[in-house]
Amino acid sequence: MTDSNSTPSIGPTFPLDESAIQRSAWGRVLGSPVTWLPYLPVFAGFCLFNLPWAPFLGLLTLLSGIEAFFWAKKWPVFMQQIRNNFIAGHNRLQDQILEAAAKGLRSNRRYSNFGNKLSWFVSMKKKIETKIHANPPLTSQGEQLEVLVDSLCIGAMRHFQAIVQLDKELEASTESKTMLQEKSRSLRATVVERISEAEKTLQDTWDKLDIVLNPAQMDRPTPSSSLDVIVRQLREELDIAHRVHARLQSDVQIQPPPAAAEDAQPQ
Predict the structure, then answer these.
(1) What is the pLDDT of residues 102-151, one digit of tens each?
(2) What's the rounded Cα separation, in Å, for the pair 253 and 265?
(3) CB 3.0–4.6 Å: which of 33, 97, 105, 125 could bond 37 by disulfide?
């Protein structure tokens, strides 16, 4: 039986850990042969052939200037690659944790339906994230949408695991089980309702993803946001995007063609 307490800590990919990204970037810069290899002949000449101090320091200064110019020119693309690696790595970790939780749920017939539903959430998450990152650079809207999708899937997992944990407490209880049984029934009914709404929302997100990815603003949820809050935010964003899209389409339809506009000008 799956224990919700055994699941590793997991949260949305964004915001990124910029300090970790900087450490990774500098580690790669300092460890790159491009950085240190040009200095070897200079130090070899100084140590083995008694190269005078003045030429030695001059060569070091020249090499350092060339290195600084090289990395300054390469830095924006280099940092974007590091960020992309962090995003991809965190998304893989999320998927592994969610898939492991789904597998654990399916291992018990009692919760196999939960496991199948969670696997569906993971599948949709992968599809949406693939499309979000298909056309870099990642927009603010895409980043915010990914936070919501991550939170939705994590929230679904935690809801399923809450039922499993409550059932374990019910089985282990030696006292009156009436209250626990009522709590379990109430929790199941709540989870079924919320998961159903989350499924519809995630499917709508995928169906309208091209519209949703247009620039817009929405509040970023925290990892502790309830599933209801996350669903509502996604619903609101979808509704806003749909209205904006419809209005833009309407504006296009009623705008007169250039020829007609010219005819309308006063003589």
Answers:
(1) 999 999 999 999 999 999 999 999 999 999 998 888 888 888 889 989 98
(2) 20
(3) 33
**Helical pair 53-106 and 112-132, crossing angle rounded to 10 deg:** 150
The answer, yes or no, to whether the previous bond of 52 is cis (omega within 30 of 0) is no
pLDDT for 185-238, tens place per residue? 888 888 888 888 889 888 988 988 887 776 444 455 555 566 777 777 777 766
**Dihedral angle over CA of 168, 174, 175, 179, nearest 10:** 20
In the chain, where the domains are located: 13-252
Comparing C-alpha atoms, which of 193, 216, 66, 67 is closest to residue 141?
Answer: 216
pTM above 0.85, yes or no: no
Return the number of other C-beta atoms located less than 10 Å from residue 134's C-beta: 9
Here the tokens at position 50 are 């008694």
CB proximity list for 170: less than 8 A, separation 6 or greater? 177, 180, 181, 184
Mapped onto helix, strand or coil, the DSSP state of residue 191 is helix
- Give the separation between CA 168 and CA 114, rounded to whole angstroms: 16
User: Among 204, 165, 172, which Cα is nearest to 187's?
Assistant: 165
Angle made by CA atoms 221, 156, 11, in degrees to the nearest 5: 45
Q: Name the packing angle between helices 178-207 and 112-132 (round to 10°).
A: 30
